[in-house]
Every structure is written in structure tokens, then in C-alpha cells.
Amino acid sequence: MQNKLLLILAFAVLLSGCAVPGPDKEYLDKIHTYKPVSILVVPVNNATIDVMAPTSVLATLPTTLAEKGYYVFPVNTVKTILEAEGYYEPAEIHLAPTENLAELFGADTVLYVKIHEWEAKYILLSTTTEVDFEYTLKDRTGVTLWQARQNLAYTPQSDSTGNPFADLIVMAVTAAIERAAPNYLPLTRQANGQAFHNVQRGLPPGPYSPLHEVYYKELSEIEE
Predict the structure, then answer these.
(1) Which CATH number belongs to the domain containing residue 89 in this structure?
(2) pTM of the full structure
């Protein structure tokens, strides 16, 4: 209880220090007015060659959105129902009328995610893992409420041993390990966090968040 109170107080302080949001103010105005309760996350549109990328993204999104205080429809159930309705390909689903998708589940909003980059790039003695996600949240009528895009990269660093030859071996081993098992999940969680939890440009706290009332109270006072 004490931790929640401290979190609320910290959030109120942060909010009072940023009266005008950044470049996404238009979308924040819309979502503040709409105040969604539930989010339908449709299958991820994958523009990369890694077929496992969408699975990893869908494995991390529900937790992030639930932490923000929104009800998230179970992604596996969503996939099953969509397939029963004849929606098999994510690209096709992303082109379908939003109102049809929302009505099918009784959702307030629909979240579309597109993966632009999901790759481990090996150059000389280093491997850089990169992810690039585009998020779009629409209301049940298809109006865009909020958008974000996150591009993150991770290059593991090895400690120096003081021996140049040994350092080269360590660098090669470190690069090989990252190339064999790229750091995708931590990067994906980080990208989601930066997109949705950003104080100025992220989603506001949903109705199931302890910060919800504090946020909108502070917002109304700032606007006055």
C-alpha cells in the first residue's frame, strides 16, 4: 500500500512538471477524451523474415498494457476467434475495418503493431541486435487515438582483460553468443515500456490503474 502511495505521489510530481505534452499532443487529447477501458491486440504484422518475432512481441504486450491499467483481451483467444471468422493473415487483419474487429469482441480500442526490424547484425567482432516497432491505437470507429514508434539496438560489451589478444577472443565469443541467441525479449520489453510508459507521449493510466484518478485530476488542474 505504501509503495502504491509513493508511486502515485511521484507520478503527480512528474505530471505537474509537464503541462504540455510533446509532439503527440493531438493523440493524447483524443485518448483523454475517449478514456478507453479495454484494448484488443490483433495479430502482429511482421515485415521481417523471422517468423518467431510476432510471438515474442505478443508475449510481452499484454503485461505492459495491463500494468498501465487496461483490460487486454487474451491474445490466443483473439487469434482463435479471428481465424474462425476467416481472418488468418495479420496483414489482412490490419486492413480490415476496425469497427468490425472491435464489434466482434466488444472492445473499446484496437491496437495494431507492425515489426519493421528484428535482426542480429554481425560486423567484425561485434553483434548488434535491433528491433523496430510501430504502434497504432484506434477507437472502435477507426479513429487513430495514439501512435508511437520505437527503434532500439543492443550491442553486448566485454570487459578488457588487459591482454589485446585475449580481448579479441573474448569479443569474438561475446559476439558469437549474441548472434546465436539475440537479446530480443529484453529489447522488446524495453521498447514496449518506452512506448507506453512515457510520461509525456505514452498512454495515460487506464481505469484499473491506481494512478488513473490522480492523473486525470492533475490533468484537469493543469488545463485550467
Answers:
(1) 3.40.50.10610
(2) 0.77
